[in-house]
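> example.struct
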């Protein structure tokens, strides 16, 4: 799809979330040249969301005073189960999508090659390629947001597994009689350490009479609670909130130890909105707990770090995906 002047070399990275769509324009060397954000509005149905993605991409390109003819490919990180070969979103609960042909529909809208992967796989690619310069041969990405997702880099490559669903770290069962998870099981990592599970635990405790400065800050129903509010409450000496966050960090440390025992990675990278807001409160506990639960010898030399890419891991990773896949499809240099 390169144009005759050889200008079709730029890449687009799209991070598709339940609440927002972020699109970035990248040079072939993965320098971000500009970005645009729009709200997702999933309640309007998938056709409308796909139109909004296309509009976000076009706006980002326009923002950079460029033309779609200068774009070589578009990478999209989509939530939920994705078939990367066909580019279909098999199931995305927070978009209420089932079997949506995202690649095909978006290619129609943009007249450009589109490549789709799970959002946490894409974030893992972004951290591995852009932040860590592809140095670790073996790396695990764990992203704590509304839910919990992850990605595995094994032998320098993204590992998707037999059914393309590898890396679903959020659904490791850590507490067999634990709280119910959205997947139907009990005691999943996601049901114990995600933002949604922390908020639910705090809201339920407040209903049962627990005292917290959060109610002074936000009112009794805690309707607009955000991750940053937890940090503010802890800074104001709220022992209850501190205890809830510490518990989530401990479970995260146990999950990290399990993954270190199984995969023996060089680096475990933590990211997502929860880590971005609460790295100072959580990371030391995660590292200590992981050391306690990892088998002797497996932890030696392994690093556990928080990503510096923050909210941009998704668009960078999607651009990495577009670069990889356009090269593979023979549209490369």
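> example.seq
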């Amino acid at each position: 799809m390169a144009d005759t002047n050889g200008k079709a070399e730029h890449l687009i990275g799209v991070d598709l979330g339940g609440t927002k769509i972020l699109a970035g324009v990248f040079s072939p060397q993965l320098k971000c040249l500009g970005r645009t954000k729009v709200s997702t509005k999933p309640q309007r149905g998938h056709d409308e969301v796909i139109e909004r993605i296309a509009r976000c991409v076009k706006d980002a390109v326009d923002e950079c005073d460029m033309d779609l003819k200068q774009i070589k490919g578009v990478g999209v990180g989509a939530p939920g189960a994705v078939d990367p070969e066909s580019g279909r979103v098999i199931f995305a609960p927070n978009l209420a999508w089932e079997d949506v042909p995202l690649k095909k529909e978006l290619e129609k809208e943009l007249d450009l090659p589109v490549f789709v992967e799970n959002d946490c796989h894409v974030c893992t690619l972004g951290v591995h390629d852009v932040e860590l310069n592809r140095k670790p041969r073996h790396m695990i990405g764990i992203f704590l947001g509304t839910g919990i997702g992850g990605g595995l880099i094994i032998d320098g490559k993204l590992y998707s597994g037999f059914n393309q669903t590898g890396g679903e770290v959020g659904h490791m069962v850590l507490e067999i009689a634990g709280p119910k998870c959205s997947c139907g099981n009990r005691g999943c990592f996601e049901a114990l350490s995600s933002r949604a599970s922390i908020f639910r635990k705090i809201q339920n405790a407040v209903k049962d009479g627990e005292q917290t400065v959060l109610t002074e800050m936000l009112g009794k129903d805690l309707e607009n609670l955000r991750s940053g509010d937890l940090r503010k409450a802890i800074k104001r000496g709220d022992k209850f909130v501190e205890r809830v966050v510490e518990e989530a960090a401990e479970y995260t440390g146990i999950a990290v130890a399990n993954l270190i025992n199984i995969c023996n990675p060089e680096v475990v990278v933590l990211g997502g909105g929860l880590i971005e807001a609460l790295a100072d409160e959580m990371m030391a506990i995660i590292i200590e707990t992981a050391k306690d639960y990892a088998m002797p010898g497996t932890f030696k030399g392994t690093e556990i770090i928080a990503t510096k890419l923050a909210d941009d891991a998704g668009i960078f990773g999607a651009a990495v995906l577009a670069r990889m896949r356009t090269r593979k499809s023979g549209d490369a240099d």
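> remarks
The domain at 10-124+312-328 is CATH 3.30.420.40 (Nucleotidyltransferase; domain 5).
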